[in-house]
Amino acid sequence: VGEKLADSLTQRFGSIGFLMLNAVWFVVWILINTGTFQSIPIFDPFPFNLLTMIVSLEAIILAIFVLISQNRVAKIDENCVN
């Protein structure tokens, strides 16, 4: 079940939609935290330490999902060869 979930998530995360969502998220975060929107208080001033931590954690989690999916595919290929 976990491997199939990882496959599904990897497929979704490896899409243009996910890329665009991340790009919009980062741009909005940076605009908010550079004071572009006067009505929203700055909560992560430059150099955006909170954003850096979140992006790092996202990268770790995405890498793990990709590795799980690759291991699953390798197991399937190995079983087909034998």
Tell me what the structure shows.
The structure is a single chain. By secondary structure, this protein is an all-alpha fold. 77% of the residues lie in helices and 0% in strands. It has three helices and no strands. The radius of gyration is 18 Å and the shape is elongated. The two termini are 24 Å apart. 2% of the residues are buried. The mean pLDDT is 92.
Q: Could you provide a short overview of the structure?
A:
The protein is mainly alpha-helical and 82 residues long.
Can you tag this structure with a few keywords?
single chain, mainly alpha, 82 residues, 0% strand
Q: Mean pLDDT across all residues, rounded?
A: 92
* Strand/helix succession: HHH
The percent range for strand residues is under 5%
Main beta sheet strand tally, sense and closure:
none
Number of helices: 3
Please bin the fraction of helical residues. Answer: over 70%
| Coarse shape | elongated
Low-confidence segments, given as residue ranges, are none
Oligomer status = single chain
Distance between the termini: 24 Å
Class based on secondary structure composition and strand pairing? mainly alpha
